[in-house]
User: What shape does this take?
Amino acid sequence: MRDLSKLHDGIDISTWHVRQHAENLIAAHECNASCEISYALLKPQDLAKTSTGLFDVESPAFATTFLTFRPEEIHSLLPGHKSLDSDGITSYTLKKVLRMGSIDMAPGDIVIDNVPLAVLTRHLTIQGMKSLGAHHGVNMLSKLSKAVCSRALEGHRCNDCPTLHFVFSPVVPVKKARANMKGDWIDDDPTPLLWESDLEISTEPWPPLPTTMVEIARAMQCYCAELTPDAVEESGCCVCGQLTWKRSLLPFHEEAYDLSLLEEFNCTRLERRTPDDPICEIKGPVLDAKLTDICPTCHDSLRNGRRPKMALANKLWVGDVPDCLKGLTLAETTMVSRVRFNRCIVRVAKGHFKMHANVIAFEHPSKKIYERLPMPKEELAEVLSVTYTGMEPPGDDDMKRTPVLVRREKVRQALEWLKLNHRDYADLSIDFNTLDTYQLENVPFGLLKSTTIAEGGNVLAATKSVFQNDDEEGTHDGPCPFSVSGITAERHTTMTTSQRKVAAIQWLKNGGSSLAIGHDKKSQSMFNNSALYPQMFPWLYPYGYGGVDQDEHTGHISRENHITWLCMYYDKRFQMSPSTLMVMFNHQLIHQSSKGSFISMKRHNFTRVADAIQKLDPGVLLAVSERLKNGGRFIPKTPEEYRCSKLMDEVDVVGSHVDGSLAKKKYQRGQIWSLINFLNAPSWFITISPADAKHPLCVHWASQDVVFKPEIKGSKERLQLISQNPVACARFFDHLINLFLKYICGWSDDGPKRGLFGKPAGYYGAVEEQGRKTLHGHFLVWIAGQLPLHVVRERLMSEDSEFLRELTEYIESSLIGEFMTGSKEEVSARVPYAPDSEDRGIHTILVDDSNAPTDYVDPTLSLPEAPPPDFCDDPTSCRCENCLALLSWWERFKLTCDDILIRSNVHTCFEQKSKKDSGDPETTDAAKKEKVAKLHRTGKGCLNKDGVCTARFPRDIFMTSSVDLETGHLNIKKQEPTINDINPTVTVCNRCNTDARFLLSGTAVKAVVGYVTDYITKGFLKTHQIFATMYETFKKHEDVLDIAKEERPGNGARQMLTKVVNSLSSKMEVGAPMAALYLLQNPDHYTSHQFVPFYWRNYFNYVQGQWSNFLDFAEPVEEDTNIIPEDVGIARTTRSFIDPSLQATKDDIRTELGVDLEDRVSAGVGIIKVEDQEDDVIVLESGGGVSSSTGEPTVAGMRCCRYRLAEKSDRRHYT
Assistant: This one.
C-alpha cells in the first residue's frame, strides 16, 4: 500500500501508519490527472485452496476436513425423519458439497440440503470451519482458536447465504485379517546377534607403516595446489551476485538466454541526483552491469527456461553503494540510521605506539524509528560513550582515530542522498539546525572514563594465549581497528543509561572486548518485516530493496539462505559490517528458539509439560540455584523439584534448535562418546589454530582484491582488513580444515585413503573460539586397524621388541617434540628477525638485519612451498635431478618448520601481575629482581602462587623412546621442554601454532576426550546460573502463564520456554567470526560419520510399560512373588517361541515322550518334565490328553520358564 500511494497524488502512507488507517486513506482517494496509471497483473487462482489457506466448499479438500457422522445424526437431519436402512452401516462420511448442478450419486448416498451449522461444527477441523465461514461471510482471523470459530459459526444466521447440498456416503466395515502388531525392530531371528554383514572389518596392519618423506611431499603437492591463485580467486555472477570460483564461471552472452525470465517489477531503482528527478526503475532484465560472467547454477536454470532461485530478480537486488555511504564510522552510521537498535560503549586502548578499539553495545528495548535525523548531541551521548586507556591523556589526533569520530559533511551528504533514493527515507525530515551543532570533524561527546597507565602495552591479558608474547596490537596511525564480538545478557534491556555505562566499564575492565547485542523483549517484532534491515543499515541497503523476510520469498527463499546469500554478495559489503552480522545472528537465535518451541508444542507429552510449567513455583528455582551455588547437588525428590527437572528437559529440547546453545553442544558431546563406542578409542589428538591475521589467503578474501597475489602486506593493512571482515575469517578457517582432513588425514570424497597418520577410520573435530575471538579446532582421529589399548599395553610390557620398534618408528615419523635442525638456541640464532615494515616516525626502531638473507620471508606471513612436481619413489638412493630437487626442498621444509616453531610454539613462563603488585617495589634482592623480570607487560601470567606453570611447562624430556615396564606407558622421544609435540606437516601447511598427541593409554584418552568435550560444551553459564536465569525469566514474565490470555491451550508455556531459551542464549559471548560461521551455515563441528538420535527415555518407558503389561498376565509362583524379576527379552509373535539354547532339552523330551513340543493336545495341564541344570531350571508343562491315533500322551499348551537360580529371578510362565 505504501508503494501504491506513491503513484497517486495526495496519499502519504509512511512506515508508522497502521493497516486500517492506510486502507481508509486509499479508499477515500479519488484519482485525478496527476495520478500515475498503474496496472495489475492477474493470474488464475486455484479454487481448491486460496492463498489464505482456506478451501473452496466445492473442492474435494473441503470434504476431507469433516469427521464421520453417526447414523442417528443423519436420520435426524432427513426431512420428516424418514426411515434409514442402516444395517451394517457404522457411520457416514461427507463425500462432496455442491452449490448447484446435477448430483452424481452412488447407491446408498444421501443428499441433505443446508445442514445446520451447529451440527457441522461438531465434525469440522479448524481449517474447515474457517473455509465454511468464508462461504457464509463470517470472517475469522488466522489466530482464532477452534472454540471461538465454532461459536462464531453457531451464532451465524443465514439470510442470503447460497444453498449447499451435502452428499453423504455410508461406511460399511470390512473384516480384515488381524495385522501383525510386531514392530520391525523386534529381532525374532534365533541366531546370535552379530554386527551387520555390510560392516567392513578393517584388515589394516597396526601399527601402520612410518610416514615417509615421499608421502609428505605428495600430500603437500595436493595441499599447495588448493592455495594457488587459480584455486582461490573469486568473482561475482551477474545473475545472482554471488561470489563464485573464477575457474567455474562462464562468460555471459545475452543472446544465449531468455532474459525475459529475469524481468521483475518494483525491485530496482535508478539513482536520483535532484528532487526533481523522477523515480524510475532499471529497464530490462535485473542484472548486475559490473559483472560479465555467470555461475553454473544460474546458467543451467536459464538454459532450462527457469529463473534461478537466488537471482537478483527474485527481489534480491540491493543496488550499488554510493561514495557518500562508504567509509562511515560507527558514530556516523548511528546518526543516519532510522532505526536505533543499540547503545554502544567504545574502549580505546593505546600502548607505546599502537592503538586499537573494542565496542560493547546494548540493544535498545524497542526499535525506535526516527522521523528527524540526525539526533541531537545529548541523545547521541546516550547511544555512544568512550573509555580511554593509554600512557597519557588522549589528544585530538588520538580521538579522531577512534570509531566514534563524526564528520559533519559526511553525515549531511549521506542523509541527503538517502532522502532522495531510499524508499523508506522519502518522508524523513533532515534537521540541518541540529546537524550544524556538530563540529566539522570531531568526537561530539566527552570521555566516559579515562585511565592513564605508567607502562605496558594495550593487549588485554584475558585475550592472550600462553604462546603469545606481543605487548601491543593495533596500528600506529590512521583509523584504529575495532573488534566486534559477543552477546550480553537480556537484563541490560531494562537498565538505565547510567547502569548500562557502569556495567560496560566493568565488562571492559575484566577483559571484555566485544560488540554485544542483547535480546529484545518482543522478539517476534524482528521478523516478517522486510523494511527492518534497510532502515537499520541504510549504508548496506542504499535503495531500501532486498530486505529479509519478504512476502514474495515465503516458501521459496528461507531466512537462513537469504542471510547466507548476503554474506556471499560479491562486493563484500555485508562481510565488512561486523555489527550487522551480530544483529542478524542475534535475530536468528531468537527465530530458532521460537521455531523450537512450536516444534516442542507438537509433541504428544507437551500437555503434561505445559501443566508442569503452569504449576511451577519460581521460588523453587531460586532455592535450587542457591543450593548448587553453595556446592550442593540437585536430585529431584519433591513434586516441585520434578517440575524444575521437567523444565530443564524442555529447555534442552527447544535449545537444541538454537546455534551454539548448551543443548546443541550436549548433543555434540554425545556424538563423540558414541563414535568412541563405535570405533574404539581414538589414536590422535590434533589442535590447529590458523593465524587469520597473517595468512595471505585470509587477507586476500578479506580485501576487495580479485586477483590473488600472495605478497606480504603490512601489519596495519592486514589488521584493518581482518578486523573488518569476520566472514573471511570464518571461510578461511573452514577452507584450511577441509584441506587438513582431505590431504593430511586422508579422508576424501571417495572414501578414506592412507594419510600422513595412516588410513583413517573416522574423525571428529570441535570448533572453539580463543580469547581474541579467532577460531581454532580440536580433532580426534581414529586409525583403521588400531588394537585395543589393553592389548597394546600387554605387548609393550611383554618386551616384544619387534612390536616396540614398529610402533616407535610409526609415532616418531608423525610426531616430534623438538626442533628438526638443531637445539632451540641454535634455531633462535639462525632465524632472522626482519625490521617492522611500518614507519613509526621518530619512534621507528632500527633492527640489525645484517645477518638476514636478502630473500628471507617470514613463513608465518607466506604460503607453504610446494615440492617439485616429479620425483622417484626412493629419492634418497636415486640421484636424478628431480630427486635432488626434492631433497633440497626437504631441507627447506625442516628449516621452515623450525622457523614457525620458534615464532609461534615456544612457551615462556611469566609471573602474574596480581602477584607482582603485592611485592615490595623497593627490594634489592637479586632473586626478587629476577622474578620481577618475568612479569609480562599485559599482566598475563601462567605461574601460580607455588611457582608452577598452569600450562604444564616445562615438559619432561626423553632423549630416546622407551617403555616404562611398571606402567606399560611408552615415553616418546622429546628433547625440547618448552614446546608441545607437533606434526611437522600440519605446522608447515597451516603456518601457525599447532599441537599433536598420540593416545596410548586409557587414561590419556579419557583426559583428551574430557578436554575436547569440555571445550565444545564450555558453558557461558554454570548450572546454578541456569536455574537463576530461569527464576529471573519466570518472575519477569509471570503474565505469560495467565491461562485466561492464552489463544490456545499450552501457548503460555510455549512462550515461557522461548523466553527462557532466549535468556540463556543471550548470555553467550560469541565472536564475530563464530557468528559469521553460523550465518554462512558452515559446521561448528566436523565429523566423518552421521549420527541418529536414540531417545533412550522413550525406549525405556515403552519397554517398562510392556513389561508391566506382561506381568499383569503372568502367573506368579507363590514362593517367588516377592522376588524382583530379571530382565527378559520378549518376542511378540503369532507362533510359539523356542529359545535356541533349549534345543538340547527339546531333543531329550522328544526321546523320552516320543513327541515334539509343538504337537497339539487337549486341555488339562500337568507337569511332565523338570530338568535341573547348572544355572537354569526348565519347567515344561503339558496337557494330559491322549493322542487319538497312538494312545500315547501328548504335549500341548506347553509353557516354559527359564531363570537364574543364583540370582533368584522371578519365575514366570511363557505361553
Remarks:
- The chain has 39 helices and 28 strands.
- The mean pLDDT is 76.
- The first strand starts at residue 91 and ends at 98.
